[in-house]
């Protein structure tokens, strides 16, 4: 199916549901170390948010027997856009059906991606209303700056592990209308990673090949802060809090994002990132293709990619 | 005309043509102080760019008898989107007609905004190809980081002075499909300023009331850098270069952008700005309305808005 | 008395005792907004510290009927250095006598400066021992990074209001062996301000003329943070906390320090500052003398000095 | 020899003479990539400086058949202090004798450190006088901010490779009056590194064990910039310039300095560093002793120390 014009049906990444077998430790990590705010709780889930996320929540932390991702959700630009996407998902045999929504949003349509990850699309949402003690001084901000821990600002993107990068890329292109901005192609011709966007961010989702061959795993979710200096301070804070720093801070060659990776107590990988003023503005951007040789050079300033980056995913194998 | 779905015809602000009666001094300012690169020259114009602008140029500096803006141009998402916009512009009686384009892009359609400013829309463009000595180390970057002067990264937005804010806002909404994200409403009911976007940036264009009552003037054009710290360093650089710093660095209350305003030798106001990780992601954002009383508080941390900000525009009255 | 060699008797500024008629509000400000730690309390005083102050405390907050400074204390390089200073203080008729010390240090010698401010000198001190929950991850750091509020790192300097700048400067030179690094001289020949150091910091104490003619008042005490970006974030935090921002963030022309001034609830002015990598290394530095004309240009990037800076001191007149 | 009071004879690190067999490439590196300024040239040497070094030069780049350090020089607090140090050097059998000085300073006294490195002490110096085009906007700054390349501010410290860390430490303590602030002690009882200061900087010189067993080699010289963000930008600049980045940017556990190491074209290791607001203020600081186990944890946030850090020195073995 060839598109005659770029698709603008997805507005942005909405939220990610993370699973944890250590829900209390995970919650403490997100609240006190990451500096997030609890927006509400329901059943086995706590709804969390960065201080400038406009919706009720962007992270749903759910108690589970193991780690990993429950689902990921994207908000559409309009109810009509949602209908259009559902039509394609059903035509492609990817649709699962409607769910009721939860504390943070209304009815959502679920689909299964090629590797088994659950994607939700929704338009009806709940805007966050800060209680008096969390009202910001400036009315164009969702919530008061917490001045606690890492003070993450907003959800940025997520990364999945997949057994077939190409299939997942085609699914996101065809069914969700996302655009691929950068890719890794191995010498063997196998596609090892892809970065895709639905916005002017250079990527909203990335996925890399799972070297263990296990389908449907989760790699990381990323929150954005305002500067690279903020990320250096986050590293100090993680060190003090005894959080395992997997790698960074450093600058990615792919997408040039300044990054820091840690593992939350439940085992899920969390990234803090800053993209500077880099945006994807070109409507006709051709995907940047990174070769195996280029990838072996390591990150932008030469840091070698840590081995666990290709193997550690959640749930563990 | 009510829109049933958000419009996505404009891709982004493309370039601004600035006029200067001191072309050599202005050029020296943009190259050596701002750290921009000359992409080419033609007739009385020099084409300039920030190091990560993907197009050939984002600033066309043209020798003229006085200062001000020649025209502003937006790139559309597709040829079809351009056709749709032309149809509306003509229906609204705003169309002027096609022009041939220049060194930086192909044919463009011109329109006249309510205050007389010239807007161009185009899709055919010329991607920048860096000569060998300016090729970047990372292939996902348009050009080598210059390591000279302010090192501005990319064009961000422009600001116009208008005699009727409401009319200009309605023009940008109806004819170009832009969304208003923030506004200033005086106690008298007069709209004194508006900020509009066609992207996930919180604004691509702003316009404020010209207190002198002169139509069609230019307020400023803004280049983005990667951090607030970059802007503090820019202030040091402007000081050393003897460039007039009008106000800043400080943080706007409206849109929360960290800013620094200077006047280039030709008299045009130039801003260096950083938005942190702030983006406009909500498809259903309601414009933030700032009252006269709120504006009197000054900028975010209390700096009073300088008087010249409401009167200095180009060309001078 | 001419010195044949530079004096090295003072090691550094030790602590400042601030008075407040709103002790609870002031304490909340220092703990929750400034991010300081309570080290202990005794009588009407609470002992406070930045996270990398090596001594027990650097700020003694004392309940009093009004605001202002109780005393300021400098630590000497050795017991012998203390004896030498006392000898000079007594010879100059400035000595008051020994006091017992308090929770934070041992016996100290008190002297009265020309304008009536109380100075203490001491060598015996109490090194801070962090309780288990505040122990840092790195053993070369005094205390865990709090990740709360402004996270001020360490005491930097203080500023006094005086009726006679020259007399105070001569006192600090002759009696304490401090060196003057920068000065303000009015066209009338009156010295309006001086900055003096006992270390490689470019100043440990400053004093400016009290335009109200009141002797013995306090202007501000300053805590250092690691970057200018930290100070911009502090401004966000003060805004959210409803703390009055008097002026800044901006860069001083004198000493080039990046600054931010606020008033704590008790009325005392507090500065957050960063000096970058600037140090006073030259043993034969000649004081920089700023003229009245130069001062009228405002701060480094042009911000005019606010009127209250010359009149607001504590206690109020 | 026990000291009854701390010694204050050394004022600061004055300059380092680096040798290069590729003098033109090295010079281009220091001028265009590091952003340093040529102050003068004489014979086979070029005198270089950071923009806020107050002396004529802080780096003397000398053409030689190989790489390495020619000498390192410290300025004393006074002529008398110089005499005192010479007396001790001669008593300890370390003295070599007077040399005439060069373009940057007057007569200097040379001594040989235990590993054979040449140390110079001097008091007579030449303050830098900026030519008109390099005069700064603010009179308390040595030279105009260059706005070119890395813009290093000032010389910070140097690091030597030695065969016997303890002997070198004792030499610097006894003969030069420096204080040890941090040390590495291996499980075997061998001292593997030491950091010493003559100022309020936490170190002016460091030296680590040369794993190749070669005496008298050079490890690196360090220039300071104002912020950690500056160092991140330096990494971008080194990448663009094709300069080999050995390791970093990252934060040292020892001394907590934020660092970036590169090799200049002549092979000498160069560091760009920022210490934040960290200073050595305590007159009675006890050296922090790092164990072998602690060192194996890597740098502050976990980056492993690269192998070349223990073997690459100049001249090459």
Q: What would your notes on this structure say?
A:
With 317 residues, the first copy, chain A, is an alpha/beta fold. The first copy, chain A, has a single domain, classed as 2,3-Dihydroxybiphenyl 1,2-Dioxygenase, domain 1 (Roll), CATH 3.10.180. In chain A, 17% of the residues lie in helices and 35% in strands. In chain A, the strands form 2 sheets. A 9-stranded mixed sheet of chain A has the order 14-15-16-13-9-12-11-10-17. In chain A, a hairpin with a 6-residue loop joins strand 14 (244-251) and strand 15 (258-263). The relative contact order of chain A is 0.16. The model of chain A has no long low-confidence stretch (mean pLDDT 97). At the A-B interface, loops of A face loops of B.
Adjacency order of strands in the biggest sheet of chain A:
14-15-16-13-9-12-11-10-17
Q: Note poorly predicted spans of chain A.
A: none
Radius of gyration of chain A: 19 Å
Largest interface: A-B, 50 and 50 residues
Architecture (CATH level 2) name of chain A: Roll
- Range of helix content of chain A: 10-25%
**CATH H-level superfamily of chain A:** 2,3-Dihydroxybiphenyl 1,2-Dioxygenase, domain 1
**Order of helical and strand elements of chain A:** EHEEEEHEEEEHEEEEHEEEEH
Supply the CATH class of chain A: Alpha Beta
How much strand of chain A? Answer: 25-35%
């Amino acid at each position: 199916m060839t598109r005659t014009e770029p698709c603008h049906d997805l507005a942005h990444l909405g939220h990610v549901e993370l699973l944890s077998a250590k829900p209390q430790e995970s919650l403490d990590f997100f609240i006190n170390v990451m500096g997030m705010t609890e927006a509400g709780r329901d059943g086995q889930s706590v709804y969390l948010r960065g201080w400038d996320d406009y919706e009720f929540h962007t992270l749903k932390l759910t108690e589970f027997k193991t780690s990993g991702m429950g689902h990921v959700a994207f908000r559409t630009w309009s109810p009509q856009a949602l209908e259009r996407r559902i039509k394609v998902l059903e035509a492609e045999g990817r649709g699962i059906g409607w769910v009721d929504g939860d504390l943070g949003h209304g009815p959502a349509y679920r689909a299964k991606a090629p590797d088994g990850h659950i994607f939700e699309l929704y338009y009806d949402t709940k805007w966050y209303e800060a209680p008096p003690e969390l009202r910001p001084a400036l009315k164009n901000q969702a919530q008061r700056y917490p001045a606690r821990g890492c003070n993450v600002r907003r959800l940025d993107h997520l990364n999945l592990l997949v057994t077939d990068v190409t299939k997942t890329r085609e699914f996101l292109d065809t069914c969700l209308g996302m655009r691929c901005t950068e890719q890794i192609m191995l010498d063997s011709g196998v596609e090892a990673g892809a970065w895709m966007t639905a916005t002017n961010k250079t990527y909203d989702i990335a996925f890399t090949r799972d070297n263990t061959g296990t389908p449907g795993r989760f790699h990381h979710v990323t929150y954005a802060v305002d500067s690279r200096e903020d990320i250096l301070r986050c590293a100090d804070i993680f060190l003090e809090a005894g959080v395992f720093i997997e790698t960074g801070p450093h600058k990615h060659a792919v997408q040039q994002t300044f990054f820091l990776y840690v593992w939350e107590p439940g085992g899920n990988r969390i990234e803090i990132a800053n993209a500077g003023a880099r945006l994807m503005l070109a409507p006709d951007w051709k995907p940047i293709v990174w070769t195996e040789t280029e990838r072996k050079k390591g990150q932008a300033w030469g840091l070698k990619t840590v081995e666990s980056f290709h193997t550690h995913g959640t749930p563990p194998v």
